[in-house]
Design brief:
By secondary structure, this protein is mostly helical. Helices cover 84% and strands 0% of the residues. The mean pLDDT is 90.
Length: 97
């Protein structure tokens, strides 16, 4: 139920912005409703969270291989792998609906 409401207000915002009839009051209302209905930004992250287990497992195995075979660069590989997992989350939330 909540998911459909969030999709409806996002679609209404997109339609209003396309028609150039989206006012500041509408934006304030949208932000309030969006914050209350989707505080964890699950709408923006839905697609990424679907592939995250596979993507994370792949990065984990690559990093584990680096740890086993090239220990001198493991610390850099670990930081890079963490950035590759969390950077899309930050980008998707910053981009918004």
């Amino acid at each position: 139920e909540k998911e459909r409401m969030v999709e409806a207000i996002i679609n209404a915002r997109k339609a209003g912005l396309t028609a150039q009839s989206w006012s500041e009051d509408n934006e304030i209302g949208f932000n309030f409703l969006k914050e209350k209905l989707d505080p964890l930004h699950m709408t923006e992250l839905k697609g990424y969270l679907g592939i995250l287990p596979f993507y994370g497992a792949f990065l984990y195995l690559v990093t584990l291989g680096i740890q086993q075979f090239s220990r001198n660069i493991f610390q850099y590989a670990y930081v890079i792998a963490a950035a590759l997992v969390f950077a899309p989350v930050v980008a998707l939330i910053a981009a918004g609906p």
